[in-house]
């Protein structure tokens, strides 16, 4: 069974959406009529039908090739289109399906609105439940294990997570995009893509991670080359437990066809990355992942990453260059009792801009918006402290609250109570003010850390 996506260019207007239903399903010589708009994933069901994510139409569509022109479809919301334009992302962006017994699990990516997991009955496609996946957005893939783990790619942070427990199971530790998940009884395979613009995605570096299933330990890293984004990963010679659960039929013929295509591609691919380069990429990637996964279960355990473009250093601190941004928010259960939090910081002497902030009152719905920040920014040989607010459309500096001549590296601690906010740098209080002075109600949002062109390490035990 094959899913065909013709003209994969993103539809960016209502007119283009209406003309985007050009994807179709084929099985041998049987070919459906075009009915899919921007499809992402399919599953072959035991009843002989094919379950398709009809993403552009914001529904799951089921087709039986023995009954041409008859479709069964269901959405999880009344919205009928995934997008109306590049900026009007109104749909659920249904991108992943997993069938287990008589239940169909559906991941709704939902852009920056917070991902959801829908559970449908199968084959009737009646909605059983729709769960908001707190702390996650932009998910890809869903795999429900026999141990009732709900595993998915948290793509923006380059990690694999259990979307029900909220646990981060593994992280790449570098600014990459995870998408594509396959599993045998021993190993898990994860697809890696680079974070690039759509115009150069086709030539960016592709890679695969091989993880040990029981421990989530990295077994291998395979740098494939400059083949663009990894959209899906499947195991063929063994039962793929993260998908259909059986060995691929006619594998020999498929491999022969792939070998012929590879031979033609071999003459045209970019050879600029030589063997030694791939070895170095592999070595660095594995080292970064080991550090990141250890840190996520250690000093960063109390934080959810909204944006994570950092590399993880040996001591668990996270370093971000000037062209990227990290935003880490204290977990909800932590925020119930938190009154203060602290972190070590180091602003860059060479990069500009270089800044780190304590975040107060975050309610930005998985985006870099809607918050107050206590900002430390490098100004020549010192740091300047100021307070800014993002009102949903722009940053506004709150006047009269600057503190000059602060160190470029040290420890920042923020304590929030009903009556005041206290800021300490290097164990010296540099600012105290009531929350109302900056238009902030006590604990009316979440707390966290935001930084760019800098290195940050949280200090545990400061609540």
Describe the structure.
- This protein is mostly beta strands.
- The protein folds into two domains: 3-255, Neuraminidase, CATH 2.120.10.30; 298-459, Jelly Rolls (Sandwich), CATH 2.60.120.560.
- The chain has helices spanning 14-18, 251-266, 275-296, 332-335, and strands spanning 2-4, 21-27, 30-31, 36-37, 42-44, 50-54, 59-63, 71-74, 94-100, 103-108, 116-121, 127-132, 139-144, 150-154, 159-162, 168-171, 176-183, 187-194, 206-212, 218-225, 303-307, 311-312, 318-320, 326-330, 340-347, 355-362, 371-379, 382-390, 395-397, 403-406, 409-416, 421-425, 428-433, 446-452, 454-459.
- Strands 21, 24, 26, 27, 28, 29, 30 and 34 form an eight-stranded antiparallel beta sheet that branches. It has a seven-stranded antiparallel beta sheet with strand order 22-23-35-25-31-32-33.
């Amino acid at each position: 069974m094959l899913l065909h996506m013709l003209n994969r260019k993103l539809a960016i207007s209502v007119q283009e959406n209406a003309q985007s239903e050009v994807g179709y399903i084929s099985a041998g010589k049987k070919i459906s009529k075009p009915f899919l708009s921007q499809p992402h994933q399919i599953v072959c069901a035991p009843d002989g039908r094919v379950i398709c994510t009809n993403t552009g139409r914001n529904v799951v569509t089921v087709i039986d090739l023995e009954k041409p022109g008859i479709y069964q479809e269901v959405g999880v919301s009344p919205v009928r289109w995934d997008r109306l334009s590049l900026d009007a992302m109104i749909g659920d962006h249904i991108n992943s399906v997993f069938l287990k017994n008589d239940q169909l699990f559906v991941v709704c990516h939902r852009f920056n609105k917070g991902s959801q997991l829908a559970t449908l009955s199968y084959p009737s496609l009646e909605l059983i439940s729709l769960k908001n996946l707190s702390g996650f957005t932009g998910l890809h893939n869903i795999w429900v294990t026999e141990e009732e783990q709900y595993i998915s790619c948290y793509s923006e942070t380059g990690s694999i997570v259990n979307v029900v427990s909220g646990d981060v199971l593994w992280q790449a530790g570098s600014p990459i995009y995870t998408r594509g998940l396959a599993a045998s009884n021993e190993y898990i395979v994860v697809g890696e893509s680079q974070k690039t613009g759509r115009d150069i995605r086709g030539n960016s570096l592709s890679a695969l991670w091989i993880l040990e299933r029981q421990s989530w330990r990295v077994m291998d890293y395979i740098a494939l080359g400059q083949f663009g984004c990894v959209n899906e990963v499947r195991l063929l010679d063994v039962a793929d437990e993260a998908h259909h659960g059986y060995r691929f039929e006619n594998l020999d013929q498929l491999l022969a066809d792939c070998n012929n295509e590879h031979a033609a591609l071999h003459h045209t691919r970019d050879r600029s990355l030589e063997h030694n380069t791939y070895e170095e990429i592999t070595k660095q990637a594995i080292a970064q992942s080991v550090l990141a996964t250890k840190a996520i279960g250690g000093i960063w355990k109390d934080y959810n990453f909204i944006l994570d473009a950092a590399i993880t250093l040996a001591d668990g601190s996270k370093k971000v260059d000037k062209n990227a941004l990290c935003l880490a928010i204290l977990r909800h259960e932590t925020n119930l009792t938190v009154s203060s939090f602290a972190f070590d910081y180091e602003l860059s002497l060479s990069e500009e801009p270089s800044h780190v902030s304590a975040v107060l009152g975050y309610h930005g719905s998985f985006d870099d918006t809607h918050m107050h920040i206590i900002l430390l920014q490098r100004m020549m040989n010192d740091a300047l402290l100021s307070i800014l607010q993002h009102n949903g459309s722009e940053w506004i500096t709150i006047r009269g609250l600057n503190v000059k001549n602060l160190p470029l590296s040290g420890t920042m601690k923020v304590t929030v109570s009903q009556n005041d906010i206290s800021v300490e740098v290097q164990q010296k209080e540099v600012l105290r003010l009531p929350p109302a002075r900056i238009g902030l109600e006590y604990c009316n949002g979440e707390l966290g850390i935001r930084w760019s062109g800098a290195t940050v390490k949280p200090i545990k035990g400061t609540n």
